[in-house]
Automatic annotation (TrEMBL):
Protein name: OmpA family protein
The keyword Ubl conjugation is annotated on this UniProt entry: no
Natural source organism: Neoroseomonas soli
Keyword Oxidoreductase annotated: no
Domain OmpA-like: 19-127
Superkingdom assignment: Bacteria
GO cellular component: cell outer membrane
Main location: membrane
């Protein structure tokens, strides 16, 4: 339910990306299923739209990967990096220059309000 709400809000987020002051770069979030570094078709579309926004600028694009706390710390660090790498690859496939993309694996983070929120990648355009 929350995922659909976020996808429905995407047009407003993307519009804000074009008008957000430099001090607050836009952040677009995609979610993964547990124990996976692959996106479903809806989330892949979100990354494609994020790439459109990123192609309109010249600043850096930071891709932060997260994983939940369940399991070992080393495994979750690797999973967060794999998630971030997957999103970075999709951005590049959709026209964002690889040299603009910086991958930042954040590793395991505590469960937030909903456990799936810990299984995410944040795309920060211009950060």
């Amino acid at each position: 339910m929350r995922r659909r709400h976020l996808i429905a809000a995407l047009p407003a987020v993307l519009a804000a990306a074009c008008t957000t002051p430099a001090s607050a770069p836009p952040s677009i979030t995609v979610f993964f299923t547990e124990d996976s570094a692959r996106l479903d078709s809806e989330a892949t579309d979100v990354v494609r739209r994020a790439a459109q926004v990123a192609r309109g600028g010249t600043g850096p694009v930071t891709v932060l990967g997260f994983a939940g706390p369940a399991g070992g710390a080393a495994y979750n660090r690797a999973l967060s990096e794999a998630r971030a790498q997957h999103v970075a690859d999709l951005l590049a496939q959709n026209g964002v220059a690889r040299e603009r993309v910086r991958i930042v694996p954040r590793g395991p983070v505590p469960f937030e309000a909903v456990p799936t929120e810990s299984r995410r990648v944040e795309i920060r355009i211009g950060s």
